[in-house]
Amino acid sequence: MCGIVGIVGRDPVNQEIYDALTVLQHRGQDAAGMVTSDGRHCYLRKDNGLVKDVFQGQHMRRLLGNVGVGQCRYPTAGSSSSAEAQPLYVNSPYGIALAHNGNLTNTEELMSDLFVEDLRHINTNSDSEVLLNVLANELNILHAIDPSPNDMFKAVGAVHQRCRGAYAVVAMVIGSGVLGFRDPFGIRPLVYGKRESEVGTEYMIASESVALDILGFKRVDDVAPGEAIFITNEGQVYRHQCAANPKLVPCIFEHVYLARPDSIMDDISVYKSRLRMGEYLARNIISRFSQRDHDIDVVIPIPDTGRTAALPLANELGVKYREGFVKNRYIGRTFIMPGQQQRQHSVRQKLNAIELEFKGKNVLLVDDSIVRGTTIKQIIQLAREAGARRVYMASAAPALRYQNVYGIDMPARDEFVAHQRSDEEVAKEIGADWLVYQTIADLKASALEGNPHVDDFECSAFDGNYVTGDVEDEYLRRLSDARRDINKQQAELAFGQETNVLELHNQA
């Protein structure tokens, strides 16, 4: 999961890309980068770290030009080396800087083809570098000195034919403009907008509409599945459907957890879909216990992720809603922390219980999802230590039992707490008196109410159905091995100690 942005402006865009990446920081806290262009040269600054740490005053002054792209990254493929921080750059043809959100599922095949057939060398483990070189090669084949929008669309069409998986992309073609495109299933989000200024119209492409809002851009539309949008340096906009059989099957986890609640995705309000998740979850509880027999005294959300669903759930059940935990905002998201020990250590730093809201009560805790169970197990223990008589647990998402291969670094299957466990066994494992999960049908319905024209939702983390149709057991086994905490740590250590990967770029 990453945040990407591209801007074609009338004035220098370095500060605006910085602001957009800051707004999208929740999508990636590992690395950040930006490439700008004055029409002839490109200027790059990228490194590991938060946006505010990567870009200092001396860097911003050197990022010249009215056109640029940026990314904040959480590594789901490859390594966390700064060489894999994005945007990535190739100098032929034209000079292309690319930022990518998602994961390719046929990376190994593409790497072989790029070397054997296209005579291109891939120097990192990043699938984004593979995607960049596929795009560059398809543009190069056209032999256009001054590429037209139609040339861009032909190249994107060829990318769709070669690449499988999930990808939302912004790419700056030096001297020409900014290209954005989305995979034929629209798994990862991409939206564009415009802003009128005194000197003309400016355009922006981003992962989430909230980035547009913050900078005063008006949302125009989502980039459709398989569609490409090309914005020239002069501010002309061209759109074209580049896929043969596109379907809108966006990732449901954007609505569960990844996106900010104030974003609009595929014409669906993320906030409204999360409210509906709480309503559906309440109806599930009522169907099991009846409105009078559930014995819940108070509904308490896990801040901040469970708050939106918890309030309508409490209203539907007719019980009190209370804030029972105070969150330390200076602790990062435990879901994406790199090791189990670090995640465990962070929970008590992150949350403190308000004892008065727990003492002597039957408490229903609500969270967006349960992944490894590490965090929620400790939170339930905190509730009991605060004096709760009974502790129940409700998850606004169904049980996670399968890896997500499309851009979310979910663990190996056997690291999920729900792996090969019934709901009752999960409740016992995390220390809850009982546990209720959202159903997959209700989860889909909560988002679908916002836009009934969505063909389906990508729910593979819950149901194991991979929409691209190319994910086999052997691929999942290799992915599972790579994503185990211990294996990731060893790989990162080896990568950092034994290599100094060269990447061609200008360091601002």
Strand order of the biggest β-sheet: 3-2-4-1-10-9-11
- The helix count comes to 17
| Number of β-strand runs | 22
CATH architecture of the largest domain: 4-Layer Sandwich
> CATH homologous superfamily of the largest domain - what is it?
Aminohydrolase, N-terminal nucleophile (Ntn) domain
User: How many individual domains?
Assistant: 2
Helix vs. strand class:
alpha+beta
Profile the largest sheet. 7 strands, antiparallel
CATH class identity of the largest domain: Alpha Beta
What is the overall pLDDT average?
90
Described by the principal axes of the CA atoms, the overall outline is globular
CATH topology of the largest domain: Glutamine Phosphoribosylpyrophosphate, subunit 1, domain 1
Could you name the ranges where pLDDT drops below 50 across 5 or more consecutive residues? Answer: none
Helix-residue proportion: 25-40%
Alpha carbon gap, first and last residue: 25 Å
Helix-strand layout with pairing:
Blueprint: E1 3-8, H1 14-23, E2 31-37, E3 42-48, H2 51-54, H3 57-62, E4 67-73, E5 88-90, E6 96-101, H4 107-116, H5 127-141, H6 149-162, E7 168-173, E8 177-182, E9 191-197, E10 200-206, H7 209-214, E11 218-222, E12 227-232, E13 237-241, H8 253-258, E14 264-265, E15 268-269, H9 270-289, E16 298-301, H10 307-317, E17 320-321, E18 325-327, H11 340-350, E19 351-353, E20 362-367, H12 374-385, E21 390-395, H13 423-430, E22 434-437, H14 440-448, H15 460-463, H16 473-483, H17 485-498
Parallel strand pairs: 16-17, 16-20, 20-21, 21-22
Antiparallel strand pairs: 1-4, 1-10, 2-3, 2-4, 5-6, 6-7, 7-8, 8-12, 9-10, 9-11, 12-13, 14-15, 18-19
